[in-house]
Design brief:
The complex is a heterodimer of chains A (278) and B (235). With 278 residues, chain A is mostly helical. Helix content of chain A is 67%, strand content 3%. The longest helix of chain A is centred in the middle third of the chain and has 33 residues. Chain B is an alpha+beta fold. The chains are: A mainly alpha (278), B alpha+beta (235). The interface between A and B is medium-sized, with 32 and 29 residues.
Chain lengths: 278, 235
Amino acid sequence: MIRHPVAWGAWTIAALAVAFIDRNPYVQALLLLAVINVYLPFRGRHLAGTWKFGLALAVVPIVFSAALSRFGRHVLFTLPPIPIIGGRWTLDAVAFGASTGLALLLTVAVFAILQSTVRSADVVAILPRPLYRAGTTVALALAFAPKTLAAFQSIREARQLRGQRAGWRAAPALLLPLLLTTLERALQYGESLDARGFGSGRRSRYRPFHWTASDLMVVIASLAAIVAIALLPIVPYNPYLDLVPAAPNPDRLFAVGFLAVPAVIASLLRMDHARPHA
Amino acid sequence: MGGAAAAALIAALLFVRPAHAAMHHAALVIQHASGSVITRCVAFAEDQITGLQLVERSGVQYEAQGFGSMGSAMCQLDREPSAVPPGCFGSGPYWQYFHRQGAGWQTSALGASASGLHDGDMDGWRYAVGKNQPPGVVAFASVCGAPAPPPAASATQVAIVPSQATRLPIATPAPRPSLEALLPSASPSPDAVLTSTGPPTQPPKPAAMAPWLALGTMAILLLTLGAINLRRRGP
């Protein structure tokens, strides 16, 4: 099972490097296929919403590029001279926006996989000693935001159950209970840290991480992908020059294939890695 | 799933275009401030070249300056102006760049290094003051002639076809003597061809199949892997 945060961190960096360095649509499509492959065995509970968010985010550059760019030869239609959006709308601009949007979708998907496979506690556990306190503080602060949001929702629901009005005008009445709840939670965090002896001496490890063969394979494959993407010649894609992308470099395609190693390992181990921390 | 993968592979293979199947031609029209016009026809083996490559392969002297993603601007063309102005453009006239669009010219939205020319395209340059001053209208056929028959295998590939009637009747009392502008009149015989000034042209090459085979193979492998992981996760 792939569990080491460093392995997933290396995979994330490699996937992001491919997504942003090579904008050839064929490479992007293949990378999306590899990311979906990794997503399938490692998917968590709420990743479907993340994909929807990524798709919505991917549409934004397409709309902006098509509406604002007047370059290109393949005219879709021409609008009357309306400020900003008037003029020629071209397929070239749509293709440019789609390329950018696909890179954004890939970014969201890669981070969603990282979020579902790596716990913040695991990341804190492998931090070097000088960074341990700062890392714990950051992890607690990051965990605080969703809990505060959940507290806000529960307070609002409680008010609705009592027949009190909801909506933004009732927001000032929500702030005081929210502030009290947040302070109470902060005190609980502090007490639990005290109870665990946080900062009182040398850090101990309750469950130290061990590298597995799967972790090492993922790290090696990710490093190979990074090196290949950085060193191999790139086939640039500029839809304004040529709408039809040129054939990608075959070596780069195999570099993308390295990123599917976690999915290969999951299928070979015949284990269900989904919800590993449930 | 396997059928879809096979269809994707077949589509990818069918998508291969017979690149470099024939020589393409693009025309270049340069109009100086004096009104003198020179034209060039450039043959190229690629599917497309940039506007800057067209100028470079035409053999006309030029100095260009890059402006990031917008491409290169032309600072000096055919020795005009006599010295490259500061900041490329200077404060007076400057080289304006146009693409042939239908029967007229359209201002290029991109610099010469970022614009693409295909077979039958025409680029125009004019050294003038003020915006949107296109060169005179020149027919593509008058520069490159009628579509040429496929080049014989043994024939020497020609990168520049001498332009015909390069001096157009545009108000130009005293055309500035330019080496390139005088070249066509110096070789009036129909079989006189100039030596290539562009990069050496290569014989047509068959389309490379390796990238498409690699793409198809990788897509099939990933689709198969996805199907395995999807079934394993099933209820």
